Amino acid sequence: MRITCRIKRYHPETDEAPYDRDYVVDVAPTDRVLDVLLLIKRTQDSTLAVRKSCGHGVCGSDAMVINGQERLACKTLVQDIATNDGDTLTVEPLRGLPVQRDLYVDQDAFFAKYRLVKPYLIRRDTEAEEGKQEFTQLPEVHRKFADQTKCILCASCYSSCPIANAPESEFIGPAAVVQASRFVFDDRDEGLEDRLPVLDASDGVWACENHFNCTRVCPRGIKVTKAINRTKRLIKQAREKSDQDV
Amino acid sequence: MNYEFDTVIVGAGGAGLYAALEASRLHGAGRTAVVSKLYPIRSHTGAAQGGIGAALGNVEEDKPEWHAFDTVKGGDYLTDQNAAIILAEDAVRAVLELEHRGLPFSRTPEGKIDQRRFGGHTRGFGEAPVCRSCYAADRTGHMILQTLYQQCIRNRASFFDEFHLLDLLMDGNRCCGVVVLELATGQLHTFHSKAVLLATGGFGRMFQITSNAYANTGDGPAVAARRGLPLEDMEFFQFHPTGIRGMGILITEGVRGEGGVLRNRHGERFMTRYAPTLLDLAPRDMVARAITLEIKAGNGIVGDKSVDDYVLLDATGLGKAVIEEKLPDIAEFCRTYQNIDPADTPIPVQPTAHYAMGGIPTDLDGRVLCDGAGGVIEGLYAAGECACVSVHGANRLGTNSLVDLVVFGRRAGRHMAQFAANADLCSVNVSDGAADVCALLDQLKSGSGSVKPGTVRDRMRTVMMEKIGIYRTGSQMREAVAELQQLRDDFRHIRIEDPAAAYNTELVEVLELRNLLDLALITAACADWREETRGAHARDDFPERDDEAFLNHSLAWLNGRDVRLGTRPVDLSRWEPKPRVY
Question: What are the angstrom distances between the C-alpha of B461 and each of A35, B182, B353, B395, B491?
């Protein structure tokens, strides 16, 4: 099948602005979009810059905007996008993050916001000692946060979120809330209070307006918006409880 | 520029992060650098699926001694037995520690860490399969990587993302740091340090069909080999029996651990003929060979005896609920890449190049060995898949790679931190150290351009697949050695066409190709040298194990166009080698 692959190119050393470049390629319907990009890189233009690693949707390197929607290039088949000769596959870098070159975006801001939520198990007791038994955790408790543990920090949700992408927005973004909720619903964790200054803030969970873009694009199928809303409710309950205690 | 740190860790997968955690805990923040060619949490540890083996005995009786024995027997007695005992005993502590650090293991109804069966793991020294694999659905590696990265954030280790290892700074038998390329700027940097840990992972990308990430190009072992250090047991490369047909994407052994079975075109559960006791849960080398023999006999699904033929992994007996609960990613891979639901339709599978048992030789604390007599390179450490302790011998058991990372990554991290606390920065001239790298980069910019990197890469991967694959013969391996020598010569004519300094991914891929070519040559030469069949190394022309001549680790030195071979003794302190039947 012969399709056109339209790639948003940009190299800050030589280009004033991003531009579209078309490549005509012969592909199989079951090729991954990543295969198509690497074919172009190899046979037509070795300067094309695309992040990649695992090639099967678990490392999060190759999130990009494919025909208008955030997807992983290695988890999207040509036939998901283009079915006929002459169809066009459009590929652009993620939104809301500075483009470094072609499909490379600077994820430092994304990871910085992730780190803000203290994404690690917080305990009041001292560190794990040798010879301890495991914590008991019932499967029904595990299920409360299992969905969120699937997150691979690919930044698809962040790119798709209209709030995170608004000018001057400081919203920590859907992925950071998902990561926080992975801990606050884990009964081994005691760090809700430590995370409240970041979560219970106008740039924290309350910035979310339930657009559901994050849930639609998540390549891991995480119910992102639901996780955010559950975190909002948990924070409300914690406030009510602390009001009662006073 | 030049950076100075007490310890530098190259690679941010499971072994590198565990070492970083230990080193940063002992040193305090800011003294440990983690240099990775990927963003953290993109490393291939995250692709490990089925579990981490530890004799917790949460589901049924189990003992570390049984785990150690299985590891030795699984490795066809080439495993260092003292290392296997450490691995099995420390695995229990490691799993509990990971759980305490937040790893979200799947749970039993009572709330304990759940465990399931995996290939080659048995109770009572081979009596029957045992539930030893602790797992988090089919995303165990992802959870380990996440948990360790989270803890490194907490300990404030310094991360240098998208920095590529190019060379080691050496002063005789002392390692003084590394030379790296920063992808974002194209600049060369030196990291001057008291100790260096190489934790760069595997190099399955030298094969056509592989489960490995694009990043798995063996940068650490290749750099070490070019610096005159030996590599150990490089002839042993594991083919995982169940990769998705044509793509090589891994389908975890956990599918068989949960009850899935392999079938040929007649619907026959053919493992009954190859491993009557463990059946589909025999070790990977045996299952991969069984699949190959079925295909060669015309029992593949196509039936044309071709190398592209395949068999079926039948998980339809497990039921939708079990698959969605315990193997959700596998179900998704099947839907995405094969358009099938494994609960209804058997999965088309063929063996896929998966794991390097060999690598940089180390002692039990990760110190890199420079000869067969136990000599070490001061200040240089290696851990994880790029290293060879050797705890996997001639064939690694499923789940033992993750155990290796956390057990030996931790030991290396601790040892290097203690070493660094008592050592001074050595007085190497860092700009001299980068001179070789500058010469190489000049060559790549001024090459004739008559050879394309893609052509060399394709040829290497085909040669390795066809001639250094699951079954091997002397004449073919010697052809492979000659072809790989030629490809290494051809490499000199490659020219980088992208003139940019920033994000020059073409340059990086060519540097990775160079690493793979060197390791492919060493692998082929070692395979030709070992005239016996042992573990993952199966020879048509030498079909028996030969303990008299070859019960030794190989050591291989890269010497210009050639490979020089030597040996290192195997630790046999616990169990006497026996025929390996299951």
Answer: 17, 27, 11, 21, 15
